[in-house]
Amino acid sequence: MSGFKLLRTPPGSLVVFVCLLMSVVENLHKGPGVKVLVKEHDDAILPCSFSTRENLEEMLFDWRKNGQKNGQKKEVFLYDAGDHYNNGHQGQDEQFKGRVSHFQDQLMNGNASIKIQNTTMADSGNYSCDFPHLQPSQTFNIELVVELTLKDRSGEIPGTCPEPYIKTLNDMKDGLLLQCEVRGASPKPKVQWQDSAGNILPSEGKCSERGGLYYVTRWTAVTKTDQYRCVVTQEEIGHQIDAETFVPFCEKRCEDCSAKKLIGGFCGFIIGVVVLVVAKALLVATKCFRAN
Q1: Exposure string (b/e) for 268-283, b if CB count within 10 Å is 16 or more?
Q2: Which phi and psi angles does 75 have, rounded to 5°?
Q3: Tens digit of each residue's pLDDT (9 = 90 or more) over 202-246
Q4: Alpha-carbon dihedral sign for residues 281, 283, 284, 290
Q5: In this structure, how many other beta carbons lie within 10 angstroms of the beta carbon of residue 192?
Q6: What are residue 40's phi and psi, to 5 degrees?
Q7: Is the dihedral of CA 134, 137, 138, 144 positive or negative?
Q8: Among 12, 38, 43, 292, which one has the highest count of C-beta atoms within 10 angstroms of its own C-beta?
């Protein structure tokens, strides 16, 4: 013999080793898996495939969405040896009806991926791709993150900010003071003043909270003619709304000043003429009086 000794492994240690191995294999399939990021309203492809490229045409795989409040999973897409939700198979959740498809020509290559069309915020979450008939069964986990696009969602989601209120407060020496007011919104909105080029203007404001709703007011001073916008954003729910006001600052003031100068000059001229006429009349009257 080579001199190596075969050490005896206690039965208990072997059991522990097998349990650890099974735990590792289980975690590989039940771990966080792959993360897929898409923009709202884009299509999302959730990957699920075997590296062995095993033919899946006669197999069963089940896509489900996890993490529901009642502990149940939503049925997303089920394929069973040619039968699936798009050719009459029953049981698909209403959220996904008519929006989910598989890649039929890729099944022979071990590809059980699916495509979700026109994704929405509600589609974000954790999905599982299960092969329950395999021994042992296999599960692949995918996280879908739908990134919201900012738009006006008034009426779609509770708490969205209504259109803000704009008004001019003070006619200052060097400009105008504009006010933007948000009356009741949740979550807390971000309020900004912008010019027509989209530049963020310096502003000051205050914020208060009553009954779970936020009330925000912001002021900005402007010194030139432009189209000014008060933009309100609630990023958590993808809501953005704005209001605009046009300020003809410089031209209006110049016109007013010119008009005032013109009127003042004209009035001065008239007064001068009147004074001159009166003076001449008095002079003539005086001469006539002396002559008599």
Answers
A1: eeeeeeeeeeeeeeee
A2: -75, 120
A3: 999 999 999 999 999 999 999 999 999 999 999 989 999 999 999
A4: positive
A5: 18
A6: -55, 135
A7: positive
A8: 38
